[in-house]
Design a protein that fits this description.
This is ATP-dependent Clp protease adapter protein ClpS. InterPro entries: ClpS (IPR022935), ClpS_core (IPR003769), Ribosomal_bL12_C/ClpS-like (IPR014719). The protein is elongated. The longest helix is centred in the C-terminal third of the chain and has 17 residues. Strand 1 and strand 2 form a beta hairpin. The chain has a domain of about 70 residues: Ribosomal Protein L30, Chain: A (2-Layer Sandwich). The protein has a three-stranded antiparallel beta sheet with strand order 4-3-5. By secondary structure, the protein is of the alpha+beta class. The relative contact order is 0.21. The chain binds L-tyrosinamide. The site of L-tyrosinamide (TYC) has 13 residues, from strand 3, helix 1 and helix 2.
Length: about 110
């Protein structure tokens, strides 16, 4: 989408003067979005990561398993995109839950 006002029409007013009608289109403000990333490590059990993805990211079992495998193979994956506040909450929930279970699982957020 262009930032420029949209030229609607050129009209001739009868004595050679052109009238240009321009409609301004105010920019819609959207809040910035944040990717929540899950990072691979060598120690967190696969089933634990699958459980985290089901519990905190609302994935079904097969989605969760697929994303867990992507993290395992590629080193990291985006597990969701949220507002700043929701992303922060997800990261905190995952990190707290992992710590409670003494797994080194890491979760971070990054502006999209
Ligand atoms: N690499 C881990 C293992 O082999 C599994 C794992 C997957 C860990 C995803 C973290 O975010 C992660 N047990």
């Amino acid at each position: 989408m262009t930032d420029w006002p949209e030229k609607m029409s050129d009209k001739e007013d009868g004595d050679g003067h052109a009238e240009v009608v321009v409609k301004t289109r105010p920019k819609t403000q959207r809040p910035p979005l944040y990717k929540v990333l899950m990072l691979n490590d060598d120690y967190t059990p696969m089933e634990f990561v699958v459980h985290v993805l089901e519990r905190f990211f609302g994935m079904n079992h097969s989605q969760a398993f697929e994303i867990m495998l992507t993290v395992h193979k590629k080193g990291l994956a985006v597990v969701g995109v949220f507002s700043h506040e929701i992303a922060e909450t997800k990261v905190t929930q995952v990190m707290d839950f992992a710590r409670q279970h003494q797994h080194p699982l890491q979760c971070t957020m990054e502006r999209e």
